[in-house]
Amino acid sequence: MNLKILVTGSEGFIGSHIVEKLVKKGYKVKALVLYNFNNSHGWLDTLDKKTLKEIEIIAGDIRDLSFLLQITKKIDVILHLAALISIPYSYKAPYSSLESNILGSFNILESAKINGVKKVIMTSTSEVYGTAQQVPINERHPLNPQSPYAASKVAADKISLSYNRSFDLPVTIIRPFNTYGPRQSLRAIIPSIISQLVSGKKIIDIGDISPKRDFTYIDDTVDAFLMAIKSKKIIGEEINLGNGFDISIGQIINILKEDFKFDFKIKVNKERLRPKKSEVYRLIASNIKAKKLLNWKPKHNGLYGFRQGLEKTIKWYEDSNNLKFFRVNEYNI
Ligand SMILES: NC(=O)c1ccc[n+]([C@@H]2O[C@H](COP(=O)([O-])OP(=O)(O)OC[C@H]3O[C@@H](n4cnc5c(N)ncnc54)[C@H](O)[C@@H]3O)[C@@H](O)[C@H]2O)c1
Q1: Ligand 1: distance of its center to the CA of 296 in Å?
Q2: Is the CB of 61 under 6 A from ligand 1?
Q3: pLDDT of 2
Q4: Which band of pLDDT confidence, cut at 50, 70 and 90, is reported for residue 19?
Q5: 35 in active site
Q6: What is the pLDDT of residues 277-291, one digit of tens each?
Q7: Separation of 256 CA from ligand 1 center, angstroms?
Q8: What is the DSSP-derived secondary structure letter of residue 57?
Q9: Could you tell me which of 127, 224, 296, 312 has the fewest CB atoms within 10 Å of its CB?
Q10: 3-class secondary structure for 149-216?
Q11: Which pLDDT value is given to residue 8?
Q12: Residue 270 resides in a domain
């Protein structure tokens, strides 16, 4: 059990929850945070002292191969989550997304190969599929990236698979569909709406409300990563993580009004619309492979499970100790 796990993107939304769970389960954790001038460790700074004492936090950058070669020595498993994940930011600064997500992932693979890391879990995204051409989307669905971000993830996925085929590097691609829950950036649709509501706004700024997504609650996403560490059947595989249940942004708005009794109107803000051909209108996962290979079954399932996850998420953002970390009155990209 005493495996040493390197988590990249450890200070972010999904990474910080994974780090917490890994410590709880007794793993040795090395947490890479993106170097910055004021030594911020992102969400890791909010973990309790007892948990923090168990984590080796290291600041650096996945774009730097020589740095990664040093920190991946004596690592058993890499969970690679670091990425620039904003789609609107990838319109504005595409090179940054390509460099972080493609070169950064290549550096992870190369250093894992050189240092003999026993398992490398690369984090993909459902965005690689583009608008569903057949549903539910299984791992054989065509790849049709509609944004520079999605294209950078396709490239990273393909390089990862090539490292398995060419060098027998024990790589697995875990492909989450949209994840939601506490600590998510306001760039994402659910926290964007909730944060505006809990701070008392009666008119909510929003983009297109027609797209449908398959939302997974953060705890379920974390469980899948922990199962991936243990599974012996996943090398060289790509595995979707999703519920097999999709819901439109408009339907979420209705749930917030009807079930959670928020009283508000929406205002479509042009700034928040994606270019038409870049908008992904429907994502819904087949999770048959995740069930088979990881024994993973999301606990927050279907409409009922979604409401449960939404309730926990609202509670978290309602707490002013949490909301203070965000800029609610700005458009976050
Ligand atoms: N959140 C979702 O709904 C979702 C869905 C599908 C896939 N994913 C994938 O999951 C992973 C984590 O996403 P998240 O939602 O936690 O995002 P996040 O933005 O909260 O976390 C990403 C982290 O990567 C770090 N990072 C960025 N560039 C770096 C660099 N050059 N060097 C080192 N660290 C760097 C950031 O500082 C950040 O903490 C990403 O790979 C993303 O593509 C997320």
Answers
A1: 22
A2: yes
A3: 86
A4: very high
A5: no
A6: 999 999 999 999 999
A7: 27
A8: E
A9: 312
A10: HHHHHHHHHHHHHHHHHHHCCCEEEEEECCEECCCCCCCCHHHHHHHHHHCCCCEEEECCCCCEECCE
A11: 98
A12: no
CATH number where 13 lies:
3.40.50.720
Domain count, the chain: 1
Q: Which residue from 40, 41, 81, 213 has its CB within 8 A of the most atoms of ligand 1, so it is best to mutate?
A: 81
Distance from residue 8's CA to the centre of ligand 1 (Å): 9
- Torsion of the alpha carbons at 41, 217, 306 and 273, rounded to the nearest 10: 60
Nearest CA to ligand 1 atom 42: 85
Question: d(Cα 216, Cα 192) in Å, to the nearest integer?
Answer: 17
The share of the chain scoring above pLDDT 70, in percent, equals 100
Amino acid (one-letter) located at 5: I
Residue 1 has what pLDDT?
A: 61
Of 236, 220, 245, whose CA–CA distance to 295 is shortest? Answer: 220
Tokens 């027998």 belong to residue: 168
Residue 160 lies in a domain: yes
pLDDT given for residue 256 in this prediction: 98
**Averaged confidence pLDDT in the chain:** 97
- Classify residue 40: in a domain, yes or no: yes
Whole-model pTM over 0.90: yes
Torsion 46-14-67-127 (CA) sign:
negative
The pLDDT value given to residue 266? 96
Residue bearing the CA closest to ligand 1, atom 41: 81
In the DSSP assignment, the letter for residue 116 is: T
User: Is 330 part of any domain?
Assistant: no
Q: Is the CB of 12 under 6 A from ligand 1?
A: yes
Q: Does residue 272 register a pLDDT over 70?
A: yes
Any ligand 1 atom below 6 A from CB of 127:
no
